[in-house]
Amino acid sequence: MPKDKSSLKLVEPHVDAETRVHDDHHLSVRLWLRMLSCTNRIENFVRQNLQANFDTTLPRFDLMAQLERAPQGLKMSELSQRMMVTGGNVTGITDGLEKEGLVIREVDPTDRRVFRVKLTVEGQKQFRRMASEHEQWIIGLFEGMSVKHKNQLTELLGDLKQHISQSSEE
Amino acid sequence: MPKDKSSLKLVEPHVDAETRVHDDHHLSVRLWLRMLSCTNRIENFVRQNLQANFDTTLPRFDLMAQLERAPQGLKMSELSQRMMVTGGNVTGITDGLEKEGLVIREVDPTDRRVFRVKLTVEGQKQFRRMASEHEQWIIGLFEGMSVKHKNQLTELLGDLKQHISQSSEE
DNA sequence: AAAGAATAATTGACACTTGAAGTAGTTGGC
DNA sequence: GCCAACTACTTCAAGTGTCAATTATTCTTT
């Protein structure tokens, strides 16, 4: 167990080496746990509202949201990538939505391995109804926070996202 | 209330009074999506590492983490609350861990409805091994970020958590 | 053109998650 | 004491998620 991590970061100069290491280690974990906790709360809130008000689920909503901003349709693999889930998963969710007539698989004429998934007219209608309520929920959850703080938070998370991409791709 | 249908999209910057309000509304949604994206990436990273290095899962790890800081054991309902998941879920995860001898259900002598769930000695050993690696993963993911920014982020998320608690409890 | 590698999507096995319904134990008012 | 309401936990069905294996198609190489 390495005790010497002093090379890690610059820290306030008034603490001794041991405390510095200790604090620095736990700082990241604490931050992560807090982030997770916030996200989970919001996610649960949204999930419950989607269920109660529209009898649908977050993944379905997510998939439809991706399609809404891609009117030309998306390949299954593109959906998988954008939703950050595996391909097998996308198959299942698409099956469900297609069965309800909200989404359609169209064969790509240039490559018969590919499906282009699109929102149906019905799907567009339903999504728009959901999206505008969804926006209100989110605005409500964040309304206790000033615009300035929201911007700060957005920016910090942007940085984080950059750094993560580097660290986790090997 | 805006009849605007493009609620989830990022909008190109037209700059007039109307659009500014519009953007202001979208600020919260954008923030939320970014937060979700960061959390998902980290969570996926941790999940994969837990699977690859310890052949276990995040929920199992989570449950054991809760027990580790409660040596007197926890009731199923307490676990459910702390992990922010439903009771039925905790039953399943506990079943699995108990079957592997990492966790044990002890009957509470004062109330025969409740179980006190505890880590076994074997469970403690395994958890400590996992926890110290887990900490390194997290530190690694966040190491691109300065201590100052980590502190800022932690504080902003703390505020957010407060505000959310108020908004989402009715 | 045929063999082999690569890509797109699906399938199946298993784990997690919720919500609703069910079982067992406890509590409080009569 | 008794019974209704409440609490703690489990069970079940359906949806979500992963990974590994499979099928179908396209690309590459010869």
Order of strands in the sheet with most strands of chain A = 1-3-2
Which term fits the overall shape of chain A?
globular
Specify which chain pair forms the largest interface.
Answer: A-B, 62 and 60 residues
Number of helices of chain A: 6
In quaternary terms, these chains amount to: homodimer
Q: Output the helix-strand order of chain A.
A: HHEHHEEHH
Stretches of chain A where pLDDT is under 50 for at least 5 consecutive residues are 1-17
Protein structure class of chain A = mainly alpha
Q: Could you give the count of β-strands of chain A?
A: 3
Distance between the termini of chain A: 24 Å
Fraction of helical residues of chain A: 55-70%
- Whole-number radius of gyration of chain A? 22 Å
- Which percent band covers the strand fraction of chain A? 5-15%
Which sheet architecture does the biggest sheet of chain A show? Answer: 3 strands, antiparallel
Mean pLDDT metric of chain A? 87
Q: Which structural traits does this protein have?
A:
homodimer, 170 residues, mainly alpha, three-stranded antiparallel sheet, globular, disordered N terminus, DNA-binding
Structural description of this entry:
Two copies of one chain form a homodimer. With 170 residues, the first copy, chain A, is mainly α. Chain A has six helices and three strands. In chain A, strands 1-3-2 form a three-stranded antiparallel sheet. In chain A, β2 and β3 (115-119) form a beta hairpin. Chain A is globular, with a radius of gyration of 22 Å. The two termini of chain A are 24 Å apart. Residues 1-17 of chain A have low confidence and may be disordered. The structure holds a DNA duplex (30 and 30 nucleotides).
